[in-house]
Write a structure and sequence with these properties.
By secondary structure, the chain is an all-beta fold.
């Protein structure tokens, strides 16, 4: 036997003890081992069998080919396995390590500690008595009476607990999962608890024969915690989702649900992501709605892909069973106009050659209109287009630097089945159009001049007679414009910053002859909004069917302050106005509809815009439309946001459209309480690095911060609260609680209210309804208290 009473290091080959181990006392000491916080992944197969066993301790006794006994800060390493203990014995013949006294073992992202361990190193087979454990990938862990290691990827814990809250014994964890048996499968990334009881603040809130959960933030199949919510139309809503991780690029979620006022139903979602295409299918089904007395359903389908020589194609479909679906189930299919549901398909092919680039395309669009039976709440939908076929191209002509652009398109316009008839029949039919332009830009540093000649041609064939009795018509309208501007710069200083100030005047001259168009269809024409962008357009209408006759000059000037170091914009101020050189006969109505009354007012309204973030932590935006004719504001938007730090934001906005709407909005996310001298758990997690989703277990305290979140929208014209969202979040470090109340207007006298409750147990799952998307959509500047790692195909919102 060889013994060293000073600090020693012993290297043992996996195939047996070194023959020269007996001479260890005479050999020079090997270089000391480096202490690592984590070990690299262990090799597999034959490479694993050749790994040496490394033993280190204050005292080591060796019997060659039999065993080695290490005492005093003993440590054994083999690949990614590291065992530390007061006393450690390694039996070479059986590849068995026996450790006693303050034993700790680390292996591939998991660590275990306790009084006694027996482990066959190569097979990672053995047991650990009364251990505590932690999974570094989630920051969660617990304790057990015994853990049996089946192999390097699987283990079984008896009478086990699991939590991400501190486990230093100073207090009971805020949440704790207790189980008769806990099966851990690190290869499948799954923990399965049998005879599980989940306690929150000492109160049992969930009991189940089996509960499964992920061992890191990757996806896995299994039942997800139930979601519970309250709805003023549907009552208590309880859903129990099942998530199916079919493959890395495909998954599905099936959600049986019960609505206390309506009955039982099921939702489903299937997602796929293949090399050449990807998409999503979702189905909501309520076979027997007790309130409506009929079946209710909704379906959504999204698909995009590429095929052949650069062809891109896709489809988008949303359909529901009835007109009241958007009222009874708000938020099911969010859109800019929830009462208009699309069915669209497209295919397009980019092309280039001979100095030109372009796009050939074919599309179709149809709408489902969820119409209201209440007078004054009906809506007029856009036209269906089936089909829409066209080509766009542009480039440079080999003549004196000329630029050109051309678009030609054929459309068939029909009306949706449930369109609202306001008393004036809407024409349907076919339109071919071509729009194009030729320009010669001169650009130099500090200035530009661009003369441009454009045309808009269209030919119509209608199914009904137009107001003059014809069923076909065509027209060609030319436009000449001259756009010129300059940029002047000078360095300056403000608010202690080095800045660059610019002065950017711009003048646009437009001349379009008058052409009578009121008898022609208005399939897609609508008056442009009055803003800084539309003022510098040569046509006051969107779409093709109306071209405003214009002989006008638009002049404006913008000044900006730019950060000299980064180029970021710190301030912008602009003013612009249009002057008519003759009366304009083709105009829009006050609501934007075409064919308004002629305009003889020479000077348009003034438009003033401004934005700045010069004042630290503040962002200010303003837009004013002032009428010199009546000497008052016609429209205005004033907005301010104060964001002194993460998870702290307050914003307010005032919007006026004289005679139509006047509205105030306030939104916020702000901490309400904070333990003196502590860092908010969300901020601490954010500062902790990329894997900030979970704080390290046992570090810090579960005492945390209350946050208030909300958004209120109030109509000063109607003197009523239109939409409201108010809630509270509590971030305790190892769990987050959320309660959010939302009120959505569904008519002038109707509204739907919802109560969303969620308990997020860090490292386990989320229980209750998911208000996170609602908060992000409604509160400008809102940030999740804990960002999860991005995953393009992660479990659905029920996670």
């Amino acid at each position: 036997m060889t013994r060293r009473r000073t600090r020693a290091h012993l290297f043992l080959l996996a195939a047996g003890l070194l023959p020269c181990a007996a001479a260890l006392g005479q050999a020079s000491a090997p270089p000391p081992l480096r202490s690592l916080k984590s070990l690299p992944p262990a090799p597999r197969g034959d490479a694993a069998a050749r790994l040496p066993v490394t033993l280190q301790a204050q005292e080591i006794r060796v019997r060659p080919d039999l065993e080695a006994v290490a005492e005093g800060d003993a440590e054994l390493r083999r690949g990614s396995i590291a065992i530390r203990a007061d006393r450690l014995t390694y039996e070479q013949a059986d590849d068995l390590a026996v450790a006693r006294g303050q034993v700790r073992i680390s292996h591939e992202g998991a660590s275990f500690s306790g009084p006694e361990l027996q482990l066959r190193i190569e097979r990672f087979e053995g047991f650990f008595d009364h251990p505590s454990y932690e999974f570094t990938r989630t920051g969660a862990g617990g304790s057990a009476q015994r853990i049996d290691f089946i192999d390097s990827s699987r283990a079984v814990a008896r009478a086990a607990t699991y939590t991400s809250c501190p486990r230093d014994g100073s207090a009971d964890p805020a949440w704790l999962l207790t189980t008769d048996k806990l099966r851990l499968d690190f290869e499948a990334n799954e923990g399965v608890a049998e005879g599980a009881v989940l306690r929150f603040l000492g109160v049992p809130i969930l009991a189940a024969p089996t509960v499964s959960f992920p061992l890191d933030d990757q996806r896995k199949s299994g039942w997800l915690p139930p979601t519970i919510g309250l709805d003023s139309r549907s009552g208590l809503v309880v859903a129990v989702p099942y998530y199916w991780n079919i493959a890395p690029n495909r998954d599905a979620t099936i959600v049986p649900k019960l609505l206390s006022r309506r009955g039982a139903g099921v939702d489903g979602e299937f997602r796929y992501l293949e090399p050449g295409f990807g998409g999503r299918i979702a189905l909501d089904l309520l076979p027997d709605d007790k309130q409506a007395g009929t079946s209710r359903r909704g379906v959504q389908f999204n698909h995009e892909g590429r095929v052949g020589p650069g062809i891109r194609y896709g489809a988008d479909l949303v359909r529901v069973s009835d007109d009241n679906y958007w009222k009874d189930f708000p938020g099911s299919y969010p859109d800019l106009v929830p009462r208009l549901l699309p069915l669209s398909a497209f295919a397009e092919l980019p092309f280039s050659g001979a100095g030109a680039t372009g796009l050939a395309y074919a599309r179709a669009m149809r709408w489902q209109v969820q119409q209201s039976s209440t007078a004054g709440e009906q809506i007029t939908s856009p036209y269906d287009r089936s089909p829409q076929v066209g080509v766009r191209a542009g480039g440079k002509l080999p003549l004196a630097g000329l630029d050109y652009a051309l678009e030609t398109e054929l459309n068939r316009f029909t009306l949706p089945a449930n369109d609202y008839d306001a008393g004036t029949p809407r024409l349907t039919g076919t339109r071919w159009h071509a729009v194009g332009s030729i320009s010669r830009p001169w650009r130099e540093p500090g200035w530009w001049v661009t003369p441009r000649l454009a045309f808009n041609a269209a030919s119509y064939a209608t199914e009904q007679a137009m107001s003059d009795g014809r069923k076909s018509a065509s027209r060609l309208i030319p436009t000449f414009s001259l756009d010129t501007g300059a940029v002047f710069e000078r360095p300056t200083q403000a608010f202690g910053r080095e800045l660059m100030q610019t002065l950017e005047p711009r003048v646009l001259y437009v001349n379009t002859p008058y052409h009578a168009q009121s008898v022609l269809p208005a399939f897609d024409a609508w008056g442009r909004d009055f803003n800084f962008v539309s003022l510098y357009q040569d046509n006051n209408f969107t779409g093709i069917d109306r071209v405003s006759d214009s002989h006008q000059i638009t002049a404006g000037v913008t000044t900006r302050l730019l950060d000299s170091g980064t180029g970021a914009e710190a301030l912008r101020l602009g003013v612009a106005q249009r002057y008519l050189l003759r009366d304009q006969l083709v105009t829009a109505q006050s609501d934007g509809a075409p064919d308004g009354t002629p305009l003889s007012q020479r000077f348009s309204d003034f438009l003033l815009v401004g934005s700045t973030n010069l004042v630290p932590k503040w962002t200010l935006d303003a837009g004013l439309q002032y009428s010199p004719e009546v000497s008052r504001l016609q429209r205005s938007v004033l907005a301010a946001r104060y964001s002194p730090g993460p998870f702290r934001t307050v914003n307010a906005a005032y919007r006026l459209n004289r005679g139509q709407s006047e509205q105030m909005e306030v939104g916020w996310q702000w901490p309400m309480t904070l333990i003196s001298g502590s860092t908010p758990p969300a901020q601490a997690a954010r500062e902790g690095g990329a894997r900030s989703a979970v704080p390290a277990a046992g570090r810090g305290s579960c005492a945390g911060t209350w946050y208030s979140v909300g958004r209120l929208s109030y109509s000063l014209l109607d003197q009523r609260l239109t939409d409201a969202l108010v809630g509270f979040e509590y971030d305790a470090g190892c769990w987050i609680g959320r309660v959010v109340a939302q009120r959505l207007s569904t008519g002038s006298t109707e509204a739907t209210s919802r109560l969303l409750l969620q308990l997020e147990l860090i490292g386990l799952s989320r229980l209750g309804s998911n208000p996170l998307q609602v908060l992000k959509d409604n509160i400008p500047g809102y940030r999740l208290l804990r960002e999860r790692n991005g995953d393009s195909l992660s479990p659905s919102s029920y996670d």
